[in-house]
Design a protein that fits this description.
The chain has seven helices and four strands. With about 200 residues, it is of the alpha/beta class. It has one domain: TIM Barrel (Alpha-Beta Barrel).
């Protein structure tokens, strides 16, 4: 793999979650990064990538799987959801593209992914990646809970263990909210040591 910090290096990456992109990742990629932490969808996407790898004659387990998602450590779930709702809105942009390509009720993309964008009314990128994004008002609490890691450190550990059981090798913390330091501190003192 090229060194991305080298001025002569070239690291090509693509972002897509449709069935064709998942198949291509399995056929060609060294790794797959999934930008949500939903257990059902992680299982579906990892399975799709690994089946495509096997069909291409590759070792499916040689593909590194990374989940990158918003993590908020704290006891006040209502506040955490409000701080993290924007993440479901951001993912909703990709989902809206899939719905426009494959249809609302397609066997190509699970309804667990597409159902929540029905009430989406567009997206204003001037609020992108920020807590309080008004373009994310359509995202229900259930989606925030599924796509993110919320709650006390123990809840994060439990969800990360489930993700590991689904074949996830790495987790990247998205930390754009009002509890950045507390979340990083909790990961350093509780979450990461539980996996060492």
């Amino acid at each position: 793999m090229p060194d991305p910090t080298s001025p002569r290096s070239e690291l090509r990456s693509r972002v897509a979650y449709g069935p064709k992109a998942l198949a291509l990742a399995g056929q060609k990629a060294d790794g797959f990064i999934l930008q949500l932490a939903d257990l059902y969808l992680t299982e579906w996407m990892v399975k799709s990538v690994r089946e495509a790898a096997a069909a291409a004659g590759r070792d499916p387990d040689a593909i590194t799987i990374c989940v990158a998602a918003l993590a908020y450590v704290g006891e006040d779930l209502e506040h955490a959801r409000d701080q993290c709702r924007w993440f479901g809105g951001m993912v909703g942009n990709h989902v809206a593209d899939l719905v426009s390509r494959y249809g609302e009720h397609s066997s190509m993309v699970p309804e667990e992914l597409t159902e929540y964008v029905k009430s989406r009314q567009g997206y204003d990128y001037s609020h992108h990646g920020r807590a309080g994004n008004p373009s994310a008002d359509f995202v229900p609490d259930e989606i925030v809970d599924r796509f993110c890691l919320l709650g006390p450190a123990e809840a994060h550990i439990e969800k990360l263990q489930h993700l590991r059981d689904l074949g996830v090798d790495q987790f990247a913390v998205y930390n754009m909210h009002d509890a950045r330091e507390a979340t990083i501190d909790a990961y350093g003192s509780h979450v990461i040591p539980s996996f060492s």
